[in-house]
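In response to reviewer comment 3 from the previous cycle, which asked for concrete evidence that the modeling workflow produces usable outputs, we include below a single protein chain processed end to end. The sequence was submitted unchanged, and the resulting structure tokens are shown without manual editing.
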Amino acid sequence: MIITISPYILLLAIAVFAFIIPIISGRIGVLAVVGEIICGILLGILGFSLEAEGQIVIDFLARFGLIFLMFLVGLEIDFSKIEVQGAKLFLLGTLIFIITLGISIFLTTKLGFGLYLALLLSTSAVGLTMPTIRELGLLKSDFGQTILISAFIADFATVLLITVYTLHFKKGFTWEMFLFAFLFVLFFIIYYVGKLAIWHYPERLSEWFK
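The workflow returned the following structure tokens.
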């Protein structure tokens, strides 16, 4: 049985559950993220359906929420520790992702599935990782930062590889696929030139930015 409800009622329910679940989870000794997932599963089992316009609103909020969450993850990364340890954390996160991707490709090949599923399995759900390590009090520790950076690299690399794979699947090798690499190179060039310019002309650039 499918029950059609207003998107406003659903948003109200989400807001209420988002406030109540962390309290209940803390009382029973369960992570809030786990409680939220269970609540989402139960709401899905009930078979709620939205009107067409309501679905557009919910889809927009879902995409915006994901983008905002990734933004918050970036703010939680302690770059001062990265400066002390150099590129060690990023290299470790990249190595973990490569190993995970290799295992995923091996398993999906053995099971008869393609590369697309292997890419999906290699991600790490940074949206679940950050709240979990924050709730455990590990966010500011070296171990927590390593986990967070590894999860961020895995998610970012997965999205990038899926985009390239989709473009290749639909259009073959096109200039759009090389645009990603060009954007990365362009960013680092601008960053390097900007750092040199700020070092040599601090007063002039300060006036320009004002």
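The first strand starts at residue 3 and ends at 5. We consider this sufficient to address the reviewer's concern, and the full set will be provided in the supplementary archive.
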